[in-house]
Amino acid sequence: MLIRNATLPDGRRGQDVLMQQGRIAAVDAGLAAPQGAEVIDAQGWLLSPPFVDAHFHMDATLSYGLPRVNASGTLLEGIALWGELKPQLTQDALMQRALQYCDWAVAKGLLAIRSHVDVCDDRLLAVEALLEVKRRVQPYLDLQLVAFPQDGLLRSPTALANLKRALDLGVDVVGGIPHFERTMADGADSVKLLCELAAERGLPVDMHCDESDDPLSRHIETLAFHTQRLKLHGRVTGSHLTSMHSMDNYYVSKLIPLVAEAGVHAVANPLINITLQGRHDSYPKRRGMTRVPELMAAGINVAFGHDCVMDPWYSLGCGDMLEVAAMGLHVAQMTSQAGMRACYDAVTTNAAKVLGLAGYGLAPGCHADFVLLQARDPIEAIRLRAARLLVVRRGTVIARSPAAAAELRLPGRPGSVDWTLQR
Ligand SMILES: [Zn+2]
Fold it and tell me: What pTM, to 2 d.p., does this model score?
């Protein structure tokens, strides 16, 4: 297949992309189409590597309203509600919901997802279901699973044994939730134990870390320390890190360089944390999202995650990573040209680094995976939540959407409008 006349995220225009055997063979202007090749005219629209979600919960997705809705809207009621739902879950229903979500994701050009899966259920029903979902979606979507002890690794009596069983079954990443342990000391112990387990097994680590407004929740410091001690550089991710929003500035000025030195990735979840954080505040009300521009400025790889779609914690969402990027941009006030582009990177290339995806990108040799957006550049894509005109996986079109346009019926001014700027 040859895609003609595309604009790339780095601004190059009029580019052709030649694909052979599921890989990118060449990217240049004016490439010749090999005989028999399918040729698609991109009409100057933005051809991007696919969206990547660095943080999601596929075991809970699309369960909104089961068995009831979250009335307070808080994290803790969400966790309690998930505890009520867990005994009622069936493997079949969970798989159907996850597969439905993967269809939504593909339609939105989201082709790689790191999902946490709760291991605090002695049946490991969600683990088995999502391992099967991972196998089924593999031809069109990379699903990476994190063994996540939702009820606390040390707080829940069977969590550690279950987490190890989940890893034995093939779950890819070691998870944790230190701020939910009974004490700060237990939280720190859980971080140490989980990092050692990951080092032993040669696995990556991705912890829910300091998802609170408590400025003294400092498990990210412990996570960076053990990453350094066990030489896990580049394999460890701190997710949420919302307490950093409320921390003392002097302390943060020491902390961020330590995180950078350890090569720990950071994942912010803007849609969720702007709704969950600051709930105990009156006014002024804190935003709660971690310090995204400051982390990026220190050279730390920062990605955005969707975290939740229609589940006990969040009632909205549809798998659109441009919505996630837009919220991150607003909450972090990243309104400069460079800031907006960085928010686009947070749902594409930076997230791919968190997952450690091989062959991701637009260089020759990479997988022929793309999304063609009805936008002229990444900023316009965020502004418009641009239509996904085409989604390509390994050189094959796997989804199409019509261009967004409206027919106008104004007196004396018939025409149509498509919200893009012809430049
Ligand atoms: Zn999460």
Answer: 0.97
